[in-house]
Automatic annotation (TrEMBL):
Keywords: Hydrolase. It comes from Talaromyces atroroseus. InterPro entries: ACOT13, HotDog_dom_sf, PAAI_dom, Thioestr_dom. The lineage of its organism: Eukaryota, Fungi, Dikarya, Ascomycota, Pezizomycotina. It holds the Pfam family 4HBT. One of its GO terms (molecular function) is fatty acyl-CoA hydrolase activity. This is Thioesterase domain-containing protein.
Length: 173
């Protein structure tokens, strides 16, 4: 779509943001085995960044497969795992959109609300669309949709509020 975002400067800003998001994802994947933590198996799920845009609003789209390790007894993704996917991927967007002193380390979750609409079966591929609704000095809000790649059906919605934990700059302004 042509328009305000089709100038050479706008394309460069877009390319820089997408490259920054790719670096955030790469760092997350490269450090996976270094620490014991609750996260997504990036190798088995084939987690990847599909696209990213600075916006406004800033937006990142990821794709991944639902794996057996994510499953409940009904052979679909466990609700807690869905919340983890939303938490981790929306936090990546916050880090990608960060500025000095604002969410450079991702912050901490203040509130995470998930609405489950349809099951996501093991082996199915999903698209996770994260959109930064608001980012201030102290708080950020990301809305997330999880959709089936096969039929674009909406499977889950998430609202993730983050609190900034970056160190305060020295001195007064």
């Amino acid at each position: 779509m042509a328009g305000d975002n089709d100038t050479p400067t706008a394309r460069k800003v877009h390319d820089d943001f997408e490259e920054n998001m790719r670096e955030v994802v790469k760092h997350f994947v490269d450090t996976e085995g270094e620490h014991e933590r609750w996260d997504i198996d990036q190798v088995e799920s084939k987690l990847r960044l599909e696209s990213a845009s600075r916006g406004p609003p800033a937006r990142a789209t990821f794709r991944l497969y639902i794996t057996p390790k994510m499953a409940n007894f009904h052979n679909s993704i466990h609700g807690g795992c869905t919340a983890t996917v939303i938490d981790i991927l929306s936090s990546m967007l916050v880090i990608g959109a960060s500025q000095p002193g604002m969410f450079q380390v991702g912050g901490v979750s203040r509130n995470l609300n998930v609405t489950y609409l349809r099951p996501m079966r093991v082996g199915s591929e999903v698209r996770v669309i994260c959109e930064l609704v608001q980012m201030g000095k102290r708080l950020a809000l990301v809305k997330t949709e999880i959709r089936s790649v096969d039929n674009d059906e909406l499977c889950a919605l998430g609202d993730h509020q983050k609190a900034n934990t970056d160190s305060k700059p020295f001195g007064k302004i």
